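Support request, please re-run this one:
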Amino acid sequence: MRQLARVRNEVEGWRALVRRVEDAIELASLNDEDLRADIEHELSAVESDISQRETKALLSGPYDRDDAILAIHAGAGGTDSQDWAAMLQRMYLRWSEQRGFEASVLDTSEGEEAGIKSTTISVDGEYAYGYLRAEKGVHRLVRLSPFDAAHRRHTSFALVEVLPQVETEDEVDINPNDLRIDTYRSAGAGGQHVQKNETAVRITHLPTGLVVTCQNERSQTQNKANAMRVLRARLLDLKQQQQVEELEQIKGDHIAAEWGSQIRSYVLHPYQMVKDHRTNYETGNTNNVLDGDIDAFIEAYLRESIGQAD
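Re-run finished. Output below.
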């Protein structure tokens, strides 16, 4: 039913666009100068609609329409990297808000001095995974460190993981006997209620050793449900990795480590620039990017990916 609703919405969207174009052509045929401003405004709106539909047409992967699980892990660089991870968290939350997606922080490990060691975010919305998969990889920040008394330039790294939230359990078979579920008191902020009760949940998948935690909800039941969502997504990702590795072994290709060279650099000093090293797309408006304006990077990656596939 959900797939049927999606198809209906998409078809109706195209039909509405066709009607708008036909109406605009009819108005233009009147050759009325008083209508010129309205026609130009409508033309701009139609072009914007078409551009968005072109981008969506690039999202043809099996899970591109699905919701996403986004995880951020601070890398080498100590407090600076933990602060950088927190900056990335804010960037993706702002991007989700601008997109109209629903983003929920499922679990966060706070840094000792500032920032975060890691965070897991659920991003719900059509094509959330399709867009966000462009962000998977190592992100590098170069800036004058606010945590260095000498105010020297530091380089920080953070790893961004993006996983699809599978809608059905058919994709990943989880045997309840393979799970060890532990509960504990939340270590983060949340008030006395969270601290007095064991609402936080840790699930260990014994066959693979995967461990997921969730502690941001006040209910143990909600935390368990969210942890299972993350575990299912990680198991699907592991399954896909194994399939890719088997194919690469057959082909004899080298398999690169996931934690490797950065996909994007954010330079705040000595100049300001954000550059994606996969597509060479760059911008000098670092403030806008860190405020969630990353659509141009995502679109450039999607178009580059289609080019590579061809």
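The CA atoms of residues 106 and 297 lie 26 Å apart. Residues 68-165+263-309 form a domain with the Alpha-Beta Plaits fold (CATH 3.30.70.1660).
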